[in-house]
Amino acid sequence: MLGQSEAYGQMRALLHRYAGCDVQVLIEGETGTGKELAAREIHYLSERSERPFVPVNCGALPDNLIENELFGHERGAYTDARSAQPGLIEHASGGTLFLDEVDSLSSKAQVTLLRFLENNEYRPVGGGATRVSTARVLAASNACLEAQAAAGLFRRDLLYRLNALYVRLPPLREREGDIPMLARHFLRQVALRMDRPEKRWTEEAQRVLDAHSWPGNVRELENVVLRAYLGTEGATIGASILHDFIAPAADLAPATLAGVSMAGADLHFVSAKRNAMCAFERSFLLDLMARTAGNISAAARLSGTERRQLGKLLKKHGIEATALR
């Protein structure tokens, strides 16, 4: 886990404190923020570090096999059960069971998990004796489980069981100063992985990277770095090649989504979609800042965004708040 920003430092300090508390932790964050890395950090800093870390993709657990996957089965439990098989919970005994994408669990799966978390007891499919698990449960979601529970999509009693301790991973756009450092790190990693010469960013390229909002977070940045490395012949990567992968502020122009003429427009779906989104963002921001006479704090409250995030978006689109006052 790499980062030097204040937001990232505060988050990692929480992970270190939580490592010493042997209870459930709920980790929330956008896609690509490193939720599994955070869970592994908790595990390997804890007294359980010598025991297994077992990650589970909850979205891949079928309803009809949820109990078999988690609890295992005894010999003869069903037709093809020729031998007993332990479940994921038993594999994580003494260690950590990491439930990724826990928000994707069905209603039936939520009930199954809740029943286990109430007393850490379970019974293998086809087995008579109840067993007690010694695994610690960490759960992660890229959705807000509180909002999911309010909408009736997630059981509130299960939320309370998972949410003994809570940490939110900051998105890349809130990690001031981390983007250039991560971009340099990934560039070195690409060269090392491919056994090729190292390359470096120009200052202009670093400014373009820093101004992007990175909706895909660290994962998106890593992909862009890889493409930029492979797409550059020389030892220096400039800003021009980044325009093929991310939307630079300099190329944006005010537009509306409704009634836009397609004459001369880029008809490649991905780039056309990106341009339309950028046009909407810029148009929205210009109207927002005009309504608040260039007051960023008032604009952040009106739009329901964090002030720092709004500042990043304004910088990305080259909008000077002072010019609107």
TrEMBL record:
Family annotation (SUPFAM superfamilies): Homeodomain-like, P-loop containing nucleoside triphosphate hydrolases
Ranges where the Sigma-54 factor interaction domain occurs: 1-230
Annotated InterPro entries: AAA+_ATPase, AAA_lid_NorR, Homeodomain-like_sf, HTH_Fis, P-loop_NTPase, Sigma_54_int, Sigma_54_int_dom_ATP-bd_2, Sigma_54_int_dom_CS
UniProt keywords, alphabetically: ATP-binding, DNA-binding, Nucleotide-binding, Transcription, Transcription regulation
GO molecular function terms attached to this record: ATP binding; sequence-specific DNA binding
Top-rank lineage group of the source organism: Bacteria
The keyword Acyltransferase is annotated on this UniProt entry: no
Name of one Pfam family that matches: Sigma54_activat
Protein's GO biological process: regulation of DNA-templated transcription
Keyword DNA-binding part of the UniProt annotation: yes
Protein name in the entry: Sigma-54 dependent transcriptional regulator
Organism listed in the record: Lysobacter firmicutimachus
